[in-house]
Automatic annotation (TrEMBL):
<dbReference type="InterPro" id="IPR003706">
    <property type="entry name" value="CstA_N"/>
</dbReference>
<feature type="transmembrane region" description="Helical">
    <location>
        <begin position="361"/>
        <end position="381"/>
    </location>
</feature>
<dbReference type="GO" id="GO:0005886">
    <property type="term" value="C:plasma membrane"/>
</dbReference>
<feature type="transmembrane region" description="Helical">
    <location>
        <begin position="158"/>
        <end position="179"/>
    </location>
</feature>
<keyword id="KW-1003">Cell membrane</keyword>
<feature type="transmembrane region" description="Helical">
    <location>
        <begin position="75"/>
        <end position="98"/>
    </location>
</feature>
<dbReference type="Pfam" id="PF02554">
    <property type="entry name" value="CstA"/>
</dbReference>
<feature type="transmembrane region" description="Helical">
    <location>
        <begin position="411"/>
        <end position="430"/>
    </location>
</feature>
<feature type="domain" description="CstA N-terminal">
    <location>
        <begin position="312"/>
        <end position="426"/>
    </location>
</feature>
<feature type="transmembrane region" description="Helical">
    <location>
        <begin position="186"/>
        <end position="206"/>
    </location>
</feature>
<keyword id="KW-1133">Transmembrane helix</keyword>
<feature type="transmembrane region" description="Helical">
    <location>
        <begin position="442"/>
        <end position="459"/>
    </location>
</feature>
<keyword id="KW-0472">Membrane</keyword>
<comment type="similarity">
    <text>Belongs to the peptide transporter carbon starvation (CstA) (TC 2.A.114) family.</text>
</comment>
<dbReference type="GO" id="GO:0009267">
    <property type="term" value="P:cellular response to starvation"/>
</dbReference>
<feature type="transmembrane region" description="Helical">
    <location>
        <begin position="312"/>
        <end position="332"/>
    </location>
</feature>
<feature type="transmembrane region" description="Helical">
    <location>
        <begin position="387"/>
        <end position="406"/>
    </location>
</feature>
């Protein structure tokens, strides 16, 4: 219990200390007009309040990641707590803040456009394809998981395909309509349900004095559970997730002032970390150890853990509400995944999105592809999503590093976690069956050598970019013309 409570305390302290340090390092220009006003179009660029933006951001980035990921990560024992806390404060929240703020400085640009500007034009095409693929995988996965949870919640009385059709219908509406019509109106209520359900489970763990394992040298992780590199891909949302880099530009286009950025981008990542801690603790403590947890996961997956632990801690009614809170998570990330994909493709092809028809002809093919992807094995999709997700995080952290390097600021705050994850990303794809399936010693060597080569190329490009005085932001007077 002490490890669990200390972890949550450290996350909160991290927001007020390291979050403040990152904000000061970046250098807020609160008098500078934001894209919400300069590029207002009534569809994607719309000024919204800080509480509303914060809840939307939390729901956008959360998905099932801070629930299902930590539940699976609980198999690695208390080591999962370390990754959630350290990863969230020093990697994930820095990633989200820099991505959101750099986007604000560049008229709400998405990651492919930022990668093109700061990492080279070739990267625009690479990252564009990578981002759209990731978002399609996210959207598809986040159709399947909430549909399965709802199917469980109704004891199978309602066919699974009915839930899938209903969720797809909602996604189409949310993707095509202006951001304030559906997302802006529903998300505050969804956000309240999410927070209440997570807090309910957390309070239930404390009130029942649940036997949450304590961190120690003897109890660092279960014997035989290899942490590296799998833990960093099992738990992504709640620690570090590249998917967030595709979501923050949605809110960078609705943020009123730069000063709001720490609450919206850094703060909501910390909130996600707290949610991850709660569900990791629940999974570790309620099923007679790791063997019992493994058995339930094998039988019913993470959804079964959510349903059973919620019911045990909160009773039938409270448990149902908690499960609904978890159902909200993937749905409110799935809709914005498709929305982000539409916006990224529109930016890439330079297609204005004010007309409904322009939005529709980009969005509908995305949904058609997603329907096909739902026929692929979920576990296979999830593994590819994990790798694509953390690869995107590496790209976003390197974009942030390049920005800070050109600005002659402390770029190590993003380069260190970016390089760490780069080693993990290369090692993972070289060692896993979804990749090259090579022996671990060869994979580790490839990870370190590959990362070293990329670092050399990064510094070579960074010195050239600084010498050429690449502008860090788009001048406000040029925004309209640029858009």
């Amino acid at each position: 219990m002490y490890t669990f409570l200390a972890g949550i305390a450290l996350l909160i302290i991290g927001y007020f200390t390291y979050g403040k340090f990152i904000e000061k390092l970046f250098g807020v220009k609160d008098e500078r007009p934001t894209p919400a006003y300069v590029n207002s179009d009534g569809v994607d660029y719309i000024p919204m309040s800080t509480p509303k933006n914060s809840l939307i951001q939390l729901l956008n980035i959360a998905g099932t990641g801070p629930v299902f990921g930590p539940i699976m990560g609980a198999l690695y024992g208390p080591a999962a707590f370390i990754w959630i806390v350290v990863g969230c404060i020093f990697a994930g929240a820095v990633h989200d803040y820099l991505t959101g703020m750099i986007s604000i400085r560049n008229r709400g640009a998405h990651l492919p456009e930022l990668a093109s500007k700061f990492l080279g034009k070739v990267m625009k095409h690479v990252v564009n394809g990578f981002a759209v693929l990731l978002l399609l995988l996210v959207g598809t996965v986040f159709v399947s998981t909430p549909a399965s949870l709802l199917h469980l919640l109704t004891d199978g009385s309602v066919a699974l395909w009915i839930f899938i059709v209903v969720i797809f219908a909602y996604y189409i509406i949310a993707t095509l309509l202006p951001v304030d019509k559906v997302i802006g109106r529903l998300y505050p209520y969804f956000g309240a349900l999410l927070l209440i359900s997570a807090l309910g489970v957390g309070i239930g763990l404390v009130a029942t004095n649940a036997p949450i394992p304590e961190l120690s040298f003897q109890n660092f992780h279960p014997e035989g559970a290899a942490i590296l590199p799998l833990l960093f891909f099992t738990i992504s949302c709640g620690a570090l997730s590249g998917f967030h880099a595709t979501q923050t530009p949605i809110i960078s286009r609705t943020t009123k002032r730069e000063k709001e950025g720490r609450k919206i981008f850094y703060g909501m990542m910390i909130a996600e970390g707290i949610i991850a801690m709660i569900w990791a603790a629940a999974a570790m403590s309620m099923f007679n150890g790791y063997n019992g947890l493994n058995e339930i996961l094998a039988a019913g997956g993470p959804g079964a853990i959510v349903s059973e632990s919620s019911t045990i801690l909160l009773g039938a009614i409270g448990g149902t509400l908690a499960v609904l809170g978890v159902v909200v998570l993937p749905i409110t990330s799935g809709d914005t995944a498709f929305r982000s994909a539409r916006m990224i493709i529109a930016d890439y092809l330079n297609i204005a999105q004010k007309k409904f028809s322009s939005r529709m002809w980009i969005a509908l093919p995305l949904f058609a592809i997603s329907v096909v992807l739902t026929q692929i094995d979920f576990n296979l999709l999830w593994r590819y999503f994990n790798w694509a997700n953390q690869s995107t995080a590496v790209i976003a952290l390197f974009v942030g590093s390049m920005y800070l390097y050109i600005a002659r600021k402390n770029y190590f705050v993003s380069l260190i976690p970016g390089t760490f994850m780069l080693v993990m990303v290369i090692t993972y794809i070289m060692s896993q069956p979804i990749g090259f399936n090579l022996p671990m010693n060869i994979s580790w060597a490839g990870g370190f050598i590959g990362a070293a080569i990329i670092l050399v190329l990064f510094f070579k490009a960074a010195k050239k970019a600084r010498a050429n005085n690449i502008p860090l932001e788009i001048d406000v007077s040029d925004w309209k013309k640029a858009s």
